[in-house]
Amino acid sequence: QVQLVASGGGLVQAGSSLRLSCAASGRTFSLYSMGWFRRAPGKEREFVASITWTGGSTVYADSVKGRFTISRDTARNTVYLQMNSLKPEETAVYYCAARNSARAEYVFWGQGTQVTVSS
Q1: What's the rounded Cα separation, in Å, for the pair 107 and 21?
Q2: What confidence tens digit (pLDDT) does each residue in 60-85 have?
Q3: What tens digit of pLDDT does each residue of 19-65 get?
Q4: Pairing of strands 78-83, 113-118
Q5: Which residues pair with 98 in a beta bridge?
Q6: Based on the number of CB atoms within 10 Å of its own CB, is 4 exposed (0-12), middle (13-18) or buried (19 or more)?
Q7: Which helix (H) or strand (E) holds 2?
Q8: What is the rounded distance in angstroms from the CA atom of residue 23 to the CA atom of residue 28?
Q9: What ranges make up the beta strands (E) of 9-118?
Q10: Closest Cα to residue 20, out of 91, 103, 79?
């Protein structure tokens, strides 16, 4: 089992930056990748970014490319999401998640952290 705790959300103005953190504990040696997802009010959950645990390969949703950066610190078992130039429509609950292989679903989920971007 892997436990994830997300933090770093808050209320910011449009155009501002925010950094989210996700601390992993438990069987972190078994992780293949970790990702960030978000769910805006009244919308489906959507993928934001992911990073492989060992190689650090990244994938981004088109909507955040060039503005968001995902990174990881394997010594601290933590993944970060640096979000720049935030937009009001990116107001959502942001969740971190983890999976054990490239073909697996994300089965480990954090509790979510609220990001509110005011216009």
Answers
A1: 18
A2: 999 999 999 999 999 999 999 999 99
A3: 999 999 998 888 899 999 999 999 999 999 999 999 899 999 999 99
A4: unpaired
A5: 34, 108
A6: buried
A7: strand 2-7
A8: 10
A9: 10-13, 18-26, 33-39, 46-52, 58-60, 68-73, 78-83, 92-99, 108-109, 113-118
A10: 79
